[in-house]
Amino acid sequence: MTAAPAQTLPEEDRLRADLYNFLGLILSRPPDQGLLDQTASLSGDDTDLGQGITTLAKLARISKPKTVQSEFNTLFIGLGRGELLPYASYYFTGFLNEKPLATLRQDMAARGLARADTVFEPEDNIASLMEMMGAMIVGRFGPALPLADQRRFFNTHIGPWAGHFFSDLEGAKASVFYAPVGRIGRAFIEIETDAFRMSAD
Fold it and tell me: Domain with 29 in it: what CATH number?
């Protein structure tokens, strides 16, 4: 699949997409030194979201890739399973590979999206959904989605459960580096939920 040409976007939408992409990247695999260095350069403000970013940047400056990898494995992989199961199906139904995954696959097919051959995780994992949302905002694989379509995708596949997942991540026993990731995600999902609600009025 080839990326579509870059489109002119409002700065607010580009920043939204950047945050979705960042969350997708940092939740898809343990960060290497390059991503830790990039994360260390971030700066936040006094908002809940901004404070999460500031804390994560501080942790990124003192964290080693091997330490964060160990935390990532404990949280998401574990022996048999990790402390958290970051899948929409699990949060919706208590089981993996259920109807929410089938619904997502239908929506993906309608938009010409498909799981990469090298990826074996179900598509309803949080990292993939963050990446999809970022791609839709900027039009990475076609025209940028209108706000109404973004809202529909978010309200169907992300809004009902992602905030709960990020709260769980923030408070997970194994979370150190990933605790502020959970805070960032939780705050961002709250902002997006409120913005989409207001745009529907």
Answer: 1.10.3480.10
Question: Distance (Å, rounded) from C-alpha 2 to C-alpha 14?
Answer: 20
Residues 155-180 pLDDT 10s: 999 999 999 999 999 999 999 999 99
DSSP three-state, residue 87: strand
Q: Which residue has the tokens 């009025």?
A: 201
For residue 168, give its domain range. 14-200
The number of residues making up the chain comes to 201
Question: What is the DSSP code string of 112-133?
Answer: T----TT--S-TTBHHHHHHHH
CB-CB contact of 159 with 60 (8 Å): no
Q: Are 124 and 88 in contact (CB under 8 A)?
A: yes
Mean pLDDT within 21-36: 97
DSSP E strands in the chain: the ranges are: none
Q: Give 101-125 pLDDT, tens digit per residue.
A: 999 999 998 887 777 777 778 999 9
Q: How many structural domains compose the chain? A: 1
Provide the token pair at 8: 């002119």
Q: Would residue 194 count as lying in a domain? A: yes
> Mean pLDDT in the chain?
92
Question: CB–CB of 94/72 below 8 Å?
Answer: no
Q: What is the pLDDT of residue 1?
A: 45
What 3-state class would DSSP assign to 180? helix
